[in-house]
Amino acid sequence: MKRRTIVAWAAAIFLFVVLMIVTPAIPQSQEYHDFADKREYFGIPNTLNVVSNFPFLIVGLIGLILCFHGNYFKLSLQGEIWAWACFFVGVAAVAFGSSYYHLKPNDARLVWDRLPMTIAFTSIMALFVIERVDEKAGTISIVPLVLVGIVSILYWRFFDDLRPYAIIQFVPCIAIPVMAIILPPMYTHSLYWLWAAGFYLLAKIEEAADKVIYEWTHHIVSGHTLKHLCAAMVPVFLTLMLAKRRIEPERQSLFEIWRISWRRMKAGRYEVESLSCDYTDVKTTEPQ
Q: In Gene Ontology terms, what is one molecular function of this protein (predicted)?
């Protein structure tokens, strides 16, 4: 298994190098810092974009406490405990980093916004390897993945190139839903992964439509504020999943479960359509 881990890392590094060679640099657009809602309340600049980060702190602290308090989540592997702890630390830190950035948006402060998010992303990738591929390989990958995420932020800051950070952010968005559907889970309630992915996708759409949503709502709320609230639903769903899930005895992937359900539905429909009725002749008498 150690050899497989080395091969996987070597392949990932090779693909990354090729991608960096064949694609142009992506500089940070300064228009990114121009958010729609700049209103100030109670002396707090960009108030709604700042305070909408508060749910991250609540969910992150709750998740972190439950990871270690009497093993409430019933985590059976040591690697899981540390990976989930890294995830919830990253989630809680988003509240501070993102709030700090939105008080005065610029590149220097954006580092502290993206850093905790990257820690959360990379921790999730390690968790999927632990749960669905190999426990030892996933546990070993926690520190390297987190470090790769941190390096991607530093690379962007010093070289004004977002390519490594874009890979770290968007690869999990594709890989996690695919792995959640295809790979057999260790635990029940895998559907929560897809709910979390759906809310994250919605958050990215709201982020892109920041000004449009602000206009649609007649300047009540901006897309970026809604983005924070939807993104905070990701750790909420994952926390609920951890609280509810149990060891999966059969370990069937969601794809296999859906395929079996589809076959049963088709079989049931066929049986209904093939039902036949027998009719008996009824003797009638003609009126005299």
A: hydrolase activity, acting on carbon-nitrogen (but not peptide) bonds, in linear amides
